[in-house]
Design goal:
351 residues, alpha/beta, Arc Repressor Mutant, subunit A, Rossmann fold, 6-stranded parallel sheet, 14 strands, 41% helix, 19% strand, globular, transcription, transcription cis-regulatory region binding, transcription regulation, DNA-binding transcription factor activity
């Protein structure tokens, strides 16, 4: 049996205290610092617990003052009609919490509350009754087939939708994306400026499967051509495992006549796993081999060496997504279907 996350334990205990009247309506609940000291956890963990309570509509936050118990809606139906759905890739992901924070910030002055579900929820019967449960949806696509099916269902039920992180061709919903092309270019130029003789793009996802990976590759191409280098893309085939992809990268490096090689990876997860694999083969990362990821997840600071990465502004992306959804709900015009949020590079010791 998997161990219950600490934030979930804190969330459940606070929820019980709210529902049983230990904390009355409009009274303050413990702060992030108080919870972290009481349960001996990090403030990130206590913050996640409070955010879960906020998304469920049990508390609200006042900047500079703390969190307070919210008055309950008069009827469940009214509550459902005031609920927005955020469908995210995984049930637990620290980076995705910043998306949710941004969305919640955009809803502060509205009557709407946010409910979060992972993609697994789409397989449940509850997902068939979207229009009766939710006023609108913020959707993070993963699988193309599943995404098209779900979004068509939203279309048939006249539910406003905003896409997060990826565009889907022929689907005319507003979307909020990072400036992936600029990120691909920044990553490649960082390696080029450090003197790496060859720069290779590595991905576990094909260019036709993900608009974000495709845009990162386009940025990579612009940088290597500008530097008069020869582009090379090592991508996982459908029959390959990730370890086999990493073996292919290792073979290319070993047979490469260049003195040093830089690797631009589609995201931090691929970069960290590749770095681990190459270190196991005795390669020195940060000297002759440079690696850059994309996303700036928490683990990038903890690996050895710390990973250079492209940071997305998840908070701002969530905030803009929330603003776009509110515009649709209020029947206001949406200025642009594609909303691009700037990225930045965070240099560390892997390059």
């Amino acid at each position: 049996m998997s161990k219950q996350p600490l934030y979930k334990k804190i969330y459940q205990e606070l929820k019980k205290d709210i529902l049983t009247g230990v904390y009355l309506e409009e009274t303050q609940v413990p702060t992030e610092l108080e919870l972290s000291e009481k349960y001996d956890v990090s403030r990130i963990t206590s913050k996640r617990a409070l955010m879960e309570l906020e998304t469920e509509g049990l508390i609200y936050r006042v900047r500079g003052k703390g969190s307070f118990v919210k008055k309950r809606q008069e009827t469940m139906q009214q509550e459902k009609k005031n609920t927005l759905l955020f469908v995210m890739p995984f049930a637990q992901n620290e980076g995705l919490g910043n998306y949710a924070e941004g969305i919640l910030a955009s809803l502060n002055t509205s009557d709407y509350r946010l409910h979060m579900q992972s993609h697994d929820w789409l397989q449940s019967e509850d997902a068939l009754y979207l229009s009766s449960d939710y006023a609108g949806v913020i959707y993070y696509p993963i699988n193309m087939q599943e995404s098209i099916d779900f979004l068509y269902q939203c279309h048939m039920q006249n539910i406003p939708v905003v896409l997060l992180d990826k565009q889907i061709e022929k689907i005319h919903y507003p979307c909020v994306v990072a400036d992936n092309e600029s990120g691909g270019s920044l990553a490649s130029k960082e390696l080029i400026s450090k003197g790496y003789d060859e720069v290779i793009f590595v991905s576990g996802t094909g260019l036709t499967e993900s608009s974000s990976v495709r845009d990162r590759y386009m940025g990579y191409l612009s940088a290597v051509y500008e530097a008069s280098l020869t582009p090379q893309h090592i991508v996982k085939t459908p029959l390959q495992t990730m370890d086999q992809l990493f073996e292919s990268v290792y073979d290319v490096i070993c047979h490469n006549k260049k003195e040093s090689v830089g690797l631009v990876c589609e995201n931090d997860i691929v970069a960290i796993r590749l770095m681990t694999y190459l270190k196991q083969q005795g390669m020195d990362i940060g000297d002759k081999i440079g690696i850059i990821g994309f996303d700036n997840i928490q683990a990038t600071q903890l690996v050895d060496p710390p990973l250079t990465t492209i940071a997305q502004d998840f908070y701002r992306m969530g905030e803009v997504a929330g603003e776009l959804l509110l515009k649709q709900l209020n029947e206001e015009p949406v200025d642009s279907l594609v909303n691009v949020i700037p990225v930045s590079i965070i240099p560390r010791q892997s390059t």
